[in-house]
């Protein structure tokens, strides 16, 4: 009788705990929809400022949200403070609505990494990594938790509508390069941005890629070359290697996503050998932007530049007579700030 009562009590406790356990979204591919048609993304989001774009983002009914870095502004080696800032963002009313609407994945840039323009020498990068992966609800047994850095990939759906998403880490392995006040960063042919292990991983991901559409996302602009701020062009050997890798592996329908710049633009570059057009959407910022900046030189820009608050959208029309994707930048009240339509191969 005594053993029976103990077993009964344990069962009750288990049921109570199970019913009250806080559930959180999980970024596992089994939880994604079978077809990604609406992908939303953005960056530069200060957790303690008004966040007016979530309502418009949710209005578009995204299948997926991708953070492109500066998801919060931590800028600290105090990991308890960083955790509190992530918790503040997780408790934001409208962001919680998004979490109940779609899956969320992402990578980091410098401010959520913990150090402005930070790189491989940031002392708290391992602790910071745990905080962002927890923020993104990445499973405890995920491969990304077992290696340095936060680069990872997701393959979603089935052919002929399969999407591969590659999230790069341009902080954990980045070399510091010289910066002069008036002219900005000095490009360095010998400097690295990804590191050997991440390059090997990326080459494998692209070499074995049978997806119908591939998205490669990070916090740093890939294609623009003229400006003096952080960009892949500050690491010319790495940038050339990246473009050549896209050329050699010939993944179908490659689109690049980036943030960081506090404005939005769409760029395009054609690979040297196979003449494959590669498009990049830069989307930022979500809570603050360079509204006073009306333009910036960019030989690769397609369409217009916007200094207003913005988020990005990829609207994939798989079933159109000619399958295509709309690359969009949108703002408050869902206003379209830019729309570039690209036919899919």
Itemize the secondary structure elements and their pairings.
Elements lengths: L1 H19 L17 E5 L11 H6 L4 E5 L10 H12 L2 H7 L3 E5 L2 H4 L11 H11 L16 E5 L6 E5 L11 E2 L3 E2 L10 H12 L5 E5 L18 H14 L4 E5 L5 E7 L6 E6 L18 E6 L4 E7 L6 E7 L5 E8 L2
Quick overview:
This protein is of the alpha/beta class and 345 residues long. Helices cover 25% and strands 23% of the residues. The strands form three sheets. The protein has a seven-stranded mixed beta sheet with strand order 4-5-8-9-11-10-12, with no helix packed on it. Strands 3-2-1-13-14-15 form a six-stranded mixed beta sheet, with no helix packed on it. A two-stranded antiparallel sheet has the order 6-7.
How would you describe what is shown here?
25% of the residues lie in helices and 23% in strands. The protein has 345 residues and is of the alpha/beta class. The chain has a single domain (34-343), classed as Alkaline phosphatase D (PhoD) (Purple Acid Phosphatase, chain A, domain 2, 4-Layer Sandwich), CATH 3.60.21. The protein has a 7-stranded mixed beta sheet, with no helix packed on it. Strands 3-2-1-13-14-15 form a 6-stranded mixed beta sheet, with no helix packed on it. α3 (79-90) runs parallel beside α6 (125-135). The radius of gyration is 21 Å and the shape is globular. The protein starts with a helix and ends with a strand. The relative contact order is 0.14. The model is unreliable at 6-26 (pLDDT under 50).
């Amino acid at each position: 009788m005594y053993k029976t009562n103990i077993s009964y009590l344990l069962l009750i406790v288990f049921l109570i705990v199970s019913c009250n356990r806080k559930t959180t979204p999980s970024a596992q591919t089994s939880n994604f929809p079978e077809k990604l048609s609406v992908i939303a993304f953005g960056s530069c989001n200060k957790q303690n400022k008004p966040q007016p774009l979530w309502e418009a983002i949710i209005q578009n009914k995204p299948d997926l949200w991708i953070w492109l870095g500066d998801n919060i502004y931590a800028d600290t080696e105090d990991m308890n403070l960083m955790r509190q800032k992530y918790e503040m963002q997780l408790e934001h009313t409208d962001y919680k609505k998004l979490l109940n609407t779609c899956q969320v994945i992402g990578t980091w840039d410098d401010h959520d990494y913990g150090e402005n323009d930070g790189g491989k020498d940031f002392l708290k990068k391992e602790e910071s990594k745990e905080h962002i992966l927890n923020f993104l609800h990445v499973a405890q047994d995920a491969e990304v938790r077992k290696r340095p850095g936060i680069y990872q990939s997701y393959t979603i759906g089935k052919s002929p509508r399969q999407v591969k998403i590659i999230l790069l880490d341009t902080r954990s392995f980045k070399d510091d390069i010289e910066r002069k006040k008036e002219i900005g960063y000095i490009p360095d042919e010998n400097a690295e941005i990804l590191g050997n292990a991440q390059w090997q991983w990326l080459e494998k991901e692209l070499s074995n890629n049978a997806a119908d559409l591939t998205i490669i996302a990070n916090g740093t602009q890939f294609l623009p070359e003229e400006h003096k701020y952080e960009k892949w062009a500050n690491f010319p050997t790495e940038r050339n290697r990246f473009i050549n890798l896209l050329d050699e592996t010939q993944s179908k329908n490659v689109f690049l996503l980036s943030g960081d710049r506090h404005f939005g633009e769409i760029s395009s570059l054609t690979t040297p050998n196979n003449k494959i057009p590669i498009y990049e959407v830069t989307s930022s910022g979500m809570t603050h932007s360079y509204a006073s900046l009306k333009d910036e030189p960019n030989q690769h820009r397609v369409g217009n530049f916007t200094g207003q608050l913005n988020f990005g959208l990829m609207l994939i029309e798989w079933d159109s007579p000619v399958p295509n994707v709309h690359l969009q930048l949108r703002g408050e009240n869902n206003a379209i700030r830019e729309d570039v339509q690209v036919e899919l191969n």
